Amino acid sequence: MAKTGVLETIPCAVTKAAELKKELEKLVKAILGEEDYRVEVTDEAMRVLSGLKELKFKKSLKMVDDTVVPEEFKCPISREIMGDPVVLATGQTYDLPFIQRWLNEGHRTCPRTQQVLPHTILTPNHLVRDMISQWCKERGIELPKPVKDVDDEVHTDADRSHLKSLLEKMSSSLSDQKEAAKELRLLTKRMPSFRALFSDSTDAIPRLINPLSPENPLAIPLLIESVKSGTIETRSNAAAALFSLSALDSNKLIIGKSGALKPLIDLLEEGHPLAMKDAASAIFNLCLVLENKGRAVREGAVRVILKKIMDCILVDELLAILAMLASHQKAVEEMGELGAVHCLLGITRESSSERNKENCAAILYTICLNDYTKWRDIREEERCQWYTFKTRGEWDITRQEES
């Protein structure tokens, strides 16, 4: 009987909506057809629109209420459909705001199983989220909006102990190292709260480097993730760690293939004084290998480096990288397009560093071999100075005094 009662209300709502639509149509015609319509007409139109909106809202609520929501889609705490399902350490899934509130109140047990939690890290349950999304879409129900940020996240001693145990495993057996590296990478990639913990740990980076060897580069992906995000100190330390590891030629290839160059170039481009030199040093070391030169060029290294040089930032270090990249055809083409000739001639004229002049000469020589029209740019600069090309690829700069 209850079900019949619900069904009986539907025609009433449909009839009411139809009446309101007809009324709204008349009011809109009156507004459009009259030059000097009364204010009361617009007020009435707004009232009708409000009524239609209310009917639509009630219909949406009725659909949710009358639809049996699968138990696995409900949060065990709120008993409502989940908007942001996350997995607790016990494997149980909860809606993020409710389980976070539970943890913030000081509880350290699973609400459903009452098991003591080894840590309070929450992992997004993307599978359940996708299933809920599909279920809502099929029934025309609006998907509950997830909470984007939980401002009052807390880090407990259990969380810190969990991080510590994972880092300790990095100095243990090979199987423990693999397991710990995999979990650390997963947690720091998916969980902002764990990234924050990782960033706050002063010995995290040194512990990651300790077990590394050419045959066992387990933590390199994690170091790359650390370059991408975290505090500037953590990102700088991770870049410095990659620089140290790239001293071995075998590691240069591994690090390059693992995708380190893009985040290092991004870190350089951001321009933080603390991190730029570490990023530049790592890029230089990695680009000593031919394969990595191509990767660096594809990731936009030429544009970023040339811009920094033009801004007079880390000129010595970045000129050395640019000279190294000049052996790559695409890099040379980019330098020509980005106005490198004028910039390099200026450095040659003004710099007191012989090494910088040599690097500029080598780059200019390569650019001109690639594009003979660039000689015109050089000839324009000769209004004040004469440049004499040497066979070994250097330039002598001499001023011609007026007699």
From TrEMBL:
EC number: 2.3.2.27
Domain U-box positions: 68-142
Pfam family, one: U-box
CDD domains: RING-Ubox_PUB
Coiled-coil residue spans: none
Repeat recorded as keyword: yes
Signal sequence annotation: none
GO biological process: protein ubiquitination
Pathway(s) where this gene product acts: Protein modification; protein ubiquitination
Catalytic reaction(s) noted: S-ubiquitinyl-[E2 ubiquitin-conjugating enzyme]-L-cysteine + [acceptor protein]-L-lysine = [E2 ubiquitin-conjugating enzyme]-L-cysteine + N(6)-ubiquitinyl-[acceptor protein]-L-lysine
SUPFAM superfamilies attached to this UniProt entry: ARM repeat, RING/U-box
GO molecular function, one term: ubiquitin protein ligase activity
UniProt entry tagged with the keyword Repeat: yes
Keywords, in A-Z order: Repeat, Transferase, Ubl conjugation pathway
Protein name per UniProt: RING-type E3 ubiquitin transferase
Species the sequence originates in: Salix viminalis (Common osier)
